[in-house]
Amino acid sequence: MTVRAAWLQPTGQTREDTRLTLAALLTPSGQSPDETPLRSRAGIVPGGFVLTDTSPMQCTIGTGRAIVQGKDTAQGAYLVAVTAPETFTIEDGDPQYDRIDLIELAVVDDAYDRTGTTEAVIRLVKGAPDATPTVPQSPAGSTLPLYTVRVPKGTSAGTGGIAWKTGAVTTQHWPAVALGGIMPTSGYRGAYTGQYRDAASLFQRWDGTNWVSYPKAIGGIAPSGALATGSYTGQYRDNAGALQRWDGTAWQYAEGKSKILFSASQTVSQSVPANAWTTLTLQGADIDDGSGWNGSTTYTVPRTGWWRVSGHVVWANDAQTGMRGARIVVNGVGIPRATWLTPAGNGAVVVGGQALIKLTAGNAVTLSGYQTHTAAVRTLGGSGYACNLSAEWIKS
Fold first, then answer.
1. pLDDT of res. 255
2. Which SS3 state, helix, strand or coil, does residue 16 take?
3. Which domain holds residue 219?
4. Which of 200, 252, 314, 372 makes an SS bond possible with 385, Cβ 3.0 to 4.6 Å?
5. Coil, strand or helix: which one is 21?
6. If we measure between CA atoms, which residue out of 106, 105, 80 comes closest to residue 26?
7. At residue 314, does pLDDT exceed 90?
8. 271 and 220 within one domain
């Protein structure tokens, strides 16, 4: 009979009929379209089969439930429950070589395995000592690996036993859930379009070919460090205290938001020679949100975009002849539209202004002074006067 039903016929329902039909409640699995409709994903119900060490050479496997898919697709899936812990004693290590032992859940069905035995067991399979030991082959039956245990040469209770908590045990099992459930794992091919999984806390859907991640933090602001790449256009994130928006290709700082990031002032007068643009030293940082100020002359731009950069130089009344100037300099090059000159006068002279400048993160911004008197002229710093350089980010 090729069409089977559970609990339909008054007599004659086989164990195989029951396994195959009840598997309709399990998640499909298989490496080919032909296999998938009748094979079920093997695995344990999350939380079961916990390994606990009880002595140097002994461990206990806790209770749990599992699905063991038969080797032959027509066998169907065996639903297994372990209702009491199972204890295993590991044999002492070989004198010369390490070995790897295997702890597995097995269903031995004589109708298929021809062993004369029909049972479900958790069993310990001893590996072969070798210079490069490998996991042993499973004996007869349909199996689900639970753990491997590395047994170093010479290991015994007298030498301290198995390093249960420090690397000897490797988990081999994986989770399984009912049909439609969200699988808490990754590293496997989807079985049907619309299947879901939780892969390292990322919600994913199988589209028939690939696992597709759902957007993270939909409608909210993703916390700092959570997203290197945006999941959808219009997503926002907190980037070390600054709000950014994903434009579909890159993170951009939120448009229309201005923030004064930097201002530094001169508190000590400085002598400036004639006829040479001279970088001014500014001793006091008024504000430096982006931590770009080097403490003396240079502001390193922390954010790409349009900036409103302001600079002014206050000149002492050392002489009344010649011109006095101020200039914003980027990467050693003066900005023409941010260059200001005015004649000297009878008293302190303030010269400067502001300009919108497109800057790139990493650009070096300085303030320079210039004068054309025949000798050096001082700037004014302190005593109610101060040269100043400030920068305000406007938009990307």
1. 61
2. helix
3. 196-253
4. 314
5. helix
6. 80
7. yes
8. no
